[in-house]
What we know:
Elements: H1 10-13, E1 19-20, E2 23-24, E3 28-29, H2 42-48, H3 51-63, E4 71-76, E5 79-85, E6 91-97, E7 100-107, E8 110-115, E9 120-125, E10 128-132, E11 138-142, E12 145-152, E13 155-160, E14 179-183, E15 188-192, E16 199-203, H4 212-215, E17 217-220, E18 223-230, E19 238-245, E20 250-254, E21 260-265, E22 268-273, E23 282-285, E24 288-299, E25 305-316, E26 321-324, E27 330-331, H5 346-356, H6 358-364
Amino acid sequence: MAGIGLRDNFPRGIRPPTARDGRPVDAVPLRDGHGRFIPPGVRHIGVLDDRNIAGRIGDVDRRWDRNDHGYGWYDWDGRRFCHHYDRWGYHWWGFYVGGVYFWTRYFNDDYWWYDPYWRRWCWLDNDRWWWQNQNGGIYIVEGGNYYQYQNDGGTVVVVPDQTPPVDPPPGPTAPAQAESFYSADGTRFVSLDPNTGAAYLYDATVTDASDPRAQGRFLASGVNSVQFNYADGQTQTLQQITLTFSDGTTTAVVDPNGKRGVWLKANIATLDNLEDSSVAAVTLSQQASSVQMVDQSGQNASGEQEQRLKQITVYQLDGTTAFFDRDGNQTWDRFQPSANREPAGQAQSLRRRAQSSQAFQALQNGVSW
Protein backbone atom coordinates (compact mmCIF):
# COMPACT_ATOMS: atom_id res chain seq x y z
CA MET A 1 0.00 0.00 0.00
CA ALA A 2 1.67 3.21 -1.15
CA GLY A 3 1.33 5.57 1.77
CA ILE A 4 2.42 8.88 3.16
CA GLY A 5 6.02 9.06 4.31
CA LEU A 6 6.97 9.27 7.96
CA ARG A 7 8.39 12.75 7.35
CA ASP A 8 4.86 14.05 6.79
CA ASN A 9 3.81 14.00 10.42
CA PHE A 10 0.61 15.48 11.77
CA PRO A 11 2.09 18.10 14.14
CA ARG A 12 4.10 19.68 11.32
CA GLY A 13 1.32 19.45 8.74
CA ILE A 14 -1.64 21.05 10.45
CA ARG A 15 -2.64 23.37 13.27
CA PRO A 16 -6.42 23.16 13.75
CA PRO A 17 -7.80 26.71 13.98
CA THR A 18 -9.17 27.89 17.30
CA ALA A 19 -11.42 30.58 15.82
CA ARG A 20 -13.69 31.19 12.85
CA ASP A 21 -14.59 34.72 11.77
CA GLY A 22 -13.32 36.02 15.09
CA ARG A 23 -15.40 33.61 17.16
CA PRO A 24 -14.00 30.66 19.14
CA VAL A 25 -14.44 27.22 17.60
CA ASP A 26 -16.74 25.34 19.97
CA ALA A 27 -15.31 21.86 19.36
CA VAL A 28 -12.61 19.69 20.88
CA PRO A 29 -10.33 17.05 19.32
CA LEU A 30 -11.68 13.52 19.02
CA ARG A 31 -10.40 11.62 22.09
CA ASP A 32 -11.37 8.61 24.16
CA GLY A 33 -12.26 8.59 27.86
CA HIS A 34 -8.56 8.63 28.81
CA GLY A 35 -7.83 11.76 26.77
CA ARG A 36 -6.13 9.77 24.02
CA PHE A 37 -6.40 10.94 20.39
CA ILE A 38 -8.32 8.31 18.40
CA PRO A 39 -9.20 7.84 14.71
CA PRO A 40 -12.72 8.59 13.47
CA GLY A 41 -15.16 5.85 14.49
CA VAL A 42 -18.37 4.51 12.97
CA ARG A 43 -20.35 7.68 13.66
CA HIS A 44 -17.76 9.86 11.92
CA ILE A 45 -16.90 7.47 9.08
CA GLY A 46 -20.43 7.94 7.80
CA VAL A 47 -19.51 11.54 7.04
CA LEU A 48 -16.34 10.44 5.24
CA ASP A 49 -18.37 8.00 3.16
CA ASP A 50 -20.87 10.66 2.05
CA ARG A 51 -20.32 10.87 -1.73
CA ASN A 52 -21.87 14.33 -1.91
CA ILE A 53 -19.37 15.62 0.64
CA ALA A 54 -16.50 13.80 -1.07
CA GLY A 55 -17.42 15.44 -4.37
CA ARG A 56 -17.39 18.90 -2.82
CA ILE A 57 -14.05 18.21 -1.14
CA GLY A 58 -12.56 17.13 -4.46
CA ASP A 59 -13.87 20.28 -6.12
CA VAL A 60 -12.29 22.53 -3.48
CA ASP A 61 -8.97 20.68 -3.74
CA ARG A 62 -8.85 21.12 -7.51
CA ARG A 63 -9.68 24.82 -7.39
CA TRP A 64 -7.55 25.78 -4.39
CA ASP A 65 -4.90 28.46 -4.82
CA ARG A 66 -1.66 26.58 -4.12
CA ASN A 67 -0.12 29.75 -2.72
CA ASP A 68 -2.81 29.99 -0.06
CA HIS A 69 -1.82 28.18 3.14
CA GLY A 70 -4.64 29.56 5.23
CA TYR A 71 -7.87 27.91 6.35
CA GLY A 72 -11.19 27.86 4.52
CA TRP A 73 -14.50 27.08 6.26
CA TYR A 74 -17.51 25.44 4.61
CA ASP A 75 -21.04 24.61 5.77
CA TRP A 76 -22.49 21.67 3.86
CA ASP A 77 -25.67 19.78 4.69
CA GLY A 78 -25.74 21.12 8.23
CA ARG A 79 -22.12 20.16 8.94
CA ARG A 80 -18.95 22.21 9.30
CA PHE A 81 -15.77 21.54 7.38
CA CYS A 82 -12.41 23.27 7.29
CA HIS A 83 -9.74 23.03 4.58
CA HIS A 84 -6.01 23.67 4.75
CA TYR A 85 -3.32 23.31 2.09
CA ASP A 86 0.04 22.83 3.80
CA ARG A 87 3.54 23.88 2.72
CA TRP A 88 4.40 20.33 1.60
CA GLY A 89 1.59 20.20 -0.95
CA TYR A 90 -1.05 18.22 0.93
CA HIS A 91 -4.73 18.99 1.36
CA TRP A 92 -6.08 18.62 4.90
CA TRP A 93 -9.74 18.53 5.89
CA GLY A 94 -11.22 19.08 9.31
CA PHE A 95 -14.57 17.39 9.99
CA TYR A 96 -16.62 18.97 12.78
CA VAL A 97 -19.25 16.53 14.02
CA GLY A 98 -21.26 17.57 17.05
CA GLY A 99 -18.87 18.85 19.68
CA VAL A 100 -15.74 17.15 18.34
CA TYR A 101 -13.49 17.46 15.32
CA PHE A 102 -10.93 15.37 13.50
CA TRP A 103 -8.55 16.18 10.67
CA THR A 104 -7.60 13.88 7.82
CA ARG A 105 -5.82 13.90 4.49
CA TYR A 106 -7.19 12.59 1.23
CA PHE A 107 -4.21 11.08 -0.57
CA ASN A 108 -3.87 8.34 -3.19
CA ASP A 109 -7.68 7.86 -3.21
CA ASP A 110 -7.80 7.15 0.53
CA TYR A 111 -8.44 9.06 3.75
CA TRP A 112 -5.46 8.98 6.10
CA TRP A 113 -5.11 9.39 9.86
CA TYR A 114 -1.82 9.95 11.66
CA ASP A 115 -1.33 8.06 14.92
CA PRO A 116 0.74 10.46 17.07
CA TYR A 117 1.72 7.74 19.55
CA TRP A 118 3.04 5.03 17.24
CA ARG A 119 3.83 7.65 14.56
CA ARG A 120 2.11 5.67 11.86
CA TRP A 121 -0.01 6.71 8.91
CA CYS A 122 -3.21 4.65 8.73
CA TRP A 123 -5.67 4.56 5.85
CA LEU A 124 -9.43 4.02 5.81
CA ASP A 125 -10.83 1.06 3.88
CA ASN A 126 -14.19 -0.69 4.25
CA ASP A 127 -14.99 1.41 7.33
CA ARG A 128 -11.86 0.23 9.16
CA TRP A 129 -8.43 1.80 9.75
CA TRP A 130 -5.37 -0.11 8.50
CA TRP A 131 -1.60 0.20 8.65
CA GLN A 132 1.11 -1.48 6.58
CA ASN A 133 4.64 -2.01 7.87
CA GLN A 134 7.79 -1.77 5.78
CA ASN A 135 7.74 -5.52 5.11
CA GLY A 136 4.23 -5.44 3.69
CA GLY A 137 2.46 -6.78 6.79
CA ILE A 138 -1.13 -5.54 7.11
CA TYR A 139 -2.52 -4.48 10.48
CA ILE A 140 -6.02 -3.51 11.56
CA VAL A 141 -6.51 -0.79 14.19
CA GLU A 142 -8.88 -1.84 16.98
CA GLY A 143 -9.43 -0.20 20.35
CA GLY A 144 -6.35 1.97 19.92
CA ASN A 145 -4.07 -1.02 19.27
CA TYR A 146 -2.71 -2.80 16.20
CA TYR A 147 -3.44 -6.38 15.19
CA GLN A 148 -1.78 -8.16 12.30
CA TYR A 149 -4.43 -9.35 9.87
CA GLN A 150 -4.01 -12.55 7.84
CA ASN A 151 -6.53 -14.49 5.77
CA ASP A 152 -5.46 -18.12 5.68
CA GLY A 153 -7.77 -20.15 3.45
CA GLY A 154 -11.09 -19.30 5.10
CA THR A 155 -9.65 -18.54 8.54
CA VAL A 156 -8.98 -14.91 9.41
CA VAL A 157 -6.17 -14.66 11.97
CA VAL A 158 -5.78 -11.52 14.09
CA VAL A 159 -2.53 -11.32 16.11
CA PRO A 160 -1.76 -8.47 18.57
CA ASP A 161 1.19 -6.25 17.62
CA GLN A 162 3.55 -6.06 20.60
CA THR A 163 5.48 -3.03 19.30
CA PRO A 164 5.43 -0.34 22.03
CA PRO A 165 4.39 3.22 21.13
CA VAL A 166 7.06 5.84 20.54
CA ASP A 167 5.17 8.25 22.78
CA PRO A 168 2.98 6.47 25.36
CA PRO A 169 -0.64 7.65 25.15
CA PRO A 170 -2.89 8.29 28.14
CA GLY A 171 -4.64 5.18 29.44
CA PRO A 172 -3.93 1.51 28.67
CA THR A 173 -1.71 0.69 25.70
CA ALA A 174 -1.21 -3.07 25.89
CA PRO A 175 -3.40 -4.95 23.37
CA ALA A 176 -5.43 -7.97 24.37
CA GLN A 177 -2.99 -10.86 24.50
CA ALA A 178 -5.36 -13.40 22.96
CA GLU A 179 -4.77 -14.38 19.36
CA SER A 180 -8.09 -14.58 17.53
CA PHE A 181 -9.24 -16.79 14.65
CA TYR A 182 -12.44 -15.90 12.74
CA SER A 183 -14.51 -18.00 10.37
CA ALA A 184 -14.91 -16.53 6.90
CA ASP A 185 -18.68 -16.22 7.32
CA GLY A 186 -18.28 -14.22 10.54
CA THR A 187 -20.38 -16.62 12.64
CA ARG A 188 -17.66 -18.09 14.89
CA PHE A 189 -14.33 -17.09 16.37
CA VAL A 190 -11.80 -18.80 18.61
CA SER A 191 -9.73 -16.84 21.12
CA LEU A 192 -6.34 -18.42 21.85
CA ASP A 193 -4.25 -17.56 24.92
CA PRO A 194 -0.58 -17.43 23.81
CA ASN A 195 0.71 -18.47 27.24
CA THR A 196 -1.41 -21.56 27.94
CA GLY A 197 -2.83 -22.33 24.51
CA ALA A 198 -6.33 -22.27 26.03
CA ALA A 199 -8.86 -22.09 23.19
CA TYR A 200 -12.37 -20.66 23.65
CA LEU A 201 -15.08 -20.77 20.99
CA TYR A 202 -17.59 -17.91 20.61
CA ASP A 203 -20.82 -17.76 18.63
CA ALA A 204 -20.78 -14.34 16.97
CA THR A 205 -24.40 -14.57 15.83
CA VAL A 206 -25.67 -14.28 19.41
CA THR A 207 -26.77 -10.71 20.15
CA ASP A 208 -27.22 -11.18 23.91
CA ALA A 209 -23.80 -10.86 25.57
CA SER A 210 -25.10 -12.76 28.64
CA ASP A 211 -25.91 -15.82 26.52
CA PRO A 212 -23.44 -18.66 27.34
CA ARG A 213 -22.70 -19.05 23.62
CA ALA A 214 -21.40 -15.48 23.55
CA GLN A 215 -19.30 -15.95 26.68
CA GLY A 216 -17.13 -18.65 25.18
CA ARG A 217 -16.95 -22.43 25.42
CA PHE A 218 -13.64 -23.91 26.53
CA LEU A 219 -12.30 -26.34 23.93
CA ALA A 220 -8.79 -27.35 25.03
CA SER A 221 -5.40 -26.21 26.33
CA GLY A 222 -2.07 -26.51 24.57
CA VAL A 223 -3.49 -25.36 21.23
CA ASN A 224 -1.19 -23.44 18.90
CA SER A 225 -3.29 -23.08 15.75
CA VAL A 226 -6.93 -23.03 14.63
CA GLN A 227 -8.39 -23.69 11.19
CA PHE A 228 -12.03 -23.41 10.10
CA ASN A 229 -13.16 -26.04 7.59
CA TYR A 230 -16.11 -25.71 5.23
CA ALA A 231 -18.47 -28.11 3.48
CA ASP A 232 -17.33 -29.01 -0.04
CA GLY A 233 -14.35 -26.70 0.33
CA GLN A 234 -16.57 -23.62 0.21
CA THR A 235 -16.65 -20.80 2.74
CA GLN A 236 -20.44 -20.54 3.05
CA THR A 237 -21.26 -23.42 5.38
CA LEU A 238 -18.94 -24.02 8.33
CA GLN A 239 -18.44 -27.75 8.84
CA GLN A 240 -15.89 -28.14 11.63
CA ILE A 241 -12.98 -26.52 13.44
CA THR A 242 -9.54 -28.14 13.45
CA LEU A 243 -7.20 -27.55 16.41
CA THR A 244 -3.48 -28.22 16.19
CA PHE A 245 -1.59 -28.73 19.44
CA SER A 246 1.86 -27.58 20.49
CA ASP A 247 3.02 -31.16 21.21
CA GLY A 248 3.22 -31.69 17.45
CA THR A 249 1.41 -35.05 17.57
CA THR A 250 -2.18 -34.19 18.46
CA THR A 251 -5.01 -32.68 16.43
CA ALA A 252 -8.68 -32.30 17.25
CA VAL A 253 -11.83 -31.72 15.23
CA VAL A 254 -14.66 -29.80 16.92
CA ASP A 255 -18.19 -29.19 15.68
CA PRO A 256 -19.13 -25.51 15.00
CA ASN A 257 -21.14 -25.30 18.23
CA GLY A 258 -18.29 -26.64 20.36
CA LYS A 259 -20.36 -29.48 21.80
CA ARG A 260 -18.35 -32.46 20.56
CA GLY A 261 -14.68 -32.91 19.80
CA VAL A 262 -12.66 -35.81 18.40
CA TRP A 263 -9.01 -35.99 19.44
CA LEU A 264 -6.62 -37.76 17.08
CA LYS A 265 -3.23 -38.90 18.40
CA ALA A 266 -1.09 -41.85 17.28
CA ASN A 267 -4.03 -42.90 15.05
CA ILE A 268 -6.35 -43.21 18.06
CA ALA A 269 -9.57 -41.21 17.65
CA THR A 270 -11.31 -40.29 20.91
CA LEU A 271 -14.67 -38.52 21.22
CA ASP A 272 -15.18 -35.98 24.03
CA ASN A 273 -18.46 -34.42 25.13
CA LEU A 274 -17.46 -30.76 25.51
CA GLU A 275 -20.79 -29.63 26.97
CA ASP A 276 -20.83 -32.24 29.76
CA SER A 277 -17.48 -33.10 31.35
CA SER A 278 -19.07 -35.90 33.41
CA VAL A 279 -19.54 -38.00 30.26
CA ALA A 280 -16.65 -40.42 29.74
CA ALA A 281 -14.59 -40.17 26.55
CA VAL A 282 -15.33 -42.77 23.86
CA THR A 283 -12.65 -44.41 21.71
CA LEU A 284 -13.89 -44.47 18.12
CA SER A 285 -10.94 -46.07 16.36
CA GLN A 286 -7.34 -47.15 16.95
CA GLN A 287 -6.34 -46.89 13.29
CA ALA A 288 -7.83 -43.54 12.32
CA SER A 289 -6.20 -41.38 9.69
CA SER A 290 -8.67 -38.47 9.65
CA VAL A 291 -12.06 -37.38 10.96
CA GLN A 292 -14.94 -35.50 9.37
CA MET A 293 -18.11 -34.19 10.97
CA VAL A 294 -21.48 -33.98 9.21
CA ASP A 295 -24.26 -31.80 10.53
CA GLN A 296 -27.96 -31.27 9.89
CA SER A 297 -30.14 -28.20 10.15
CA GLY A 298 -32.65 -28.32 13.00
CA GLN A 299 -34.11 -26.45 15.94
CA ASN A 300 -32.31 -26.02 19.23
CA ALA A 301 -33.93 -25.87 22.69
CA SER A 302 -34.81 -22.20 22.13
CA GLY A 303 -36.59 -22.95 18.87
CA GLU A 304 -33.85 -21.35 16.76
CA GLN A 305 -32.53 -22.96 13.59
CA GLU A 306 -28.99 -24.27 13.96
CA GLN A 307 -26.63 -26.76 12.38
CA ARG A 308 -26.54 -29.77 14.71
CA LEU A 309 -23.92 -32.52 14.59
CA LYS A 310 -25.49 -35.60 13.02
CA GLN A 311 -22.64 -37.95 12.21
CA ILE A 312 -18.90 -38.43 12.75
CA THR A 313 -17.00 -40.08 9.92
CA VAL A 314 -13.68 -41.76 10.74
CA TYR A 315 -11.40 -42.65 7.83
CA GLN A 316 -9.10 -45.54 8.77
CA LEU A 317 -5.63 -46.63 7.71
CA ASP A 318 -6.89 -49.84 6.06
CA GLY A 319 -9.09 -47.83 3.69
CA THR A 320 -12.37 -48.51 5.48
CA THR A 321 -14.72 -45.89 6.87
CA ALA A 322 -16.57 -45.99 10.19
CA PHE A 323 -19.63 -43.92 11.09
CA PHE A 324 -20.74 -42.78 14.54
CA ASP A 325 -23.52 -40.65 15.95
CA ARG A 326 -22.79 -37.57 18.08
CA ASP A 327 -22.52 -39.72 21.23
CA GLY A 328 -20.06 -42.24 19.79
CA ASN A 329 -22.49 -45.03 18.94
CA GLN A 330 -21.46 -46.76 15.72
CA THR A 331 -23.92 -46.60 12.84
CA TRP A 332 -23.80 -48.44 9.54
CA ASP A 333 -25.27 -45.99 7.06
CA ARG A 334 -23.60 -42.87 5.78
CA PHE A 335 -25.76 -39.86 6.58
CA GLN A 336 -26.45 -37.70 3.55
CA PRO A 337 -27.17 -34.06 4.42
CA SER A 338 -29.98 -32.43 2.51
CA ALA A 339 -28.99 -30.75 -0.74
CA ASN A 340 -30.22 -27.39 0.52
CA ARG A 341 -27.92 -27.20 3.53
CA GLU A 342 -28.23 -23.45 3.71
CA PRO A 343 -31.38 -21.65 2.50
CA ALA A 344 -30.82 -18.84 0.04
CA GLY A 345 -29.76 -15.68 1.78
CA GLN A 346 -29.00 -17.38 5.09
CA ALA A 347 -25.24 -16.85 4.82
CA GLN A 348 -25.71 -13.13 4.32
CA SER A 349 -28.23 -13.06 7.17
CA LEU A 350 -25.69 -14.71 9.46
CA ARG A 351 -23.12 -12.09 8.52
CA ARG A 352 -25.54 -9.32 9.41
CA ARG A 353 -26.31 -11.01 12.73
CA ALA A 354 -22.60 -11.34 13.42
CA GLN A 355 -22.04 -7.64 12.79
CA SER A 356 -24.74 -6.79 15.36
CA SER A 357 -23.44 -9.30 17.90
CA GLN A 358 -22.24 -7.77 21.17
CA ALA A 359 -19.72 -10.57 21.59
CA PHE A 360 -18.25 -10.01 18.13
CA GLN A 361 -18.12 -6.24 18.54
CA ALA A 362 -16.55 -6.53 22.00
CA LEU A 363 -13.69 -8.69 20.78
CA GLN A 364 -13.24 -6.48 17.72
CA ASN A 365 -12.88 -3.51 20.04
CA GLY A 366 -10.03 -5.12 21.92
CA VAL A 367 -11.81 -6.62 24.93
CA SER A 368 -9.79 -9.49 26.40
CA TRP A 369 -12.05 -12.40 27.23
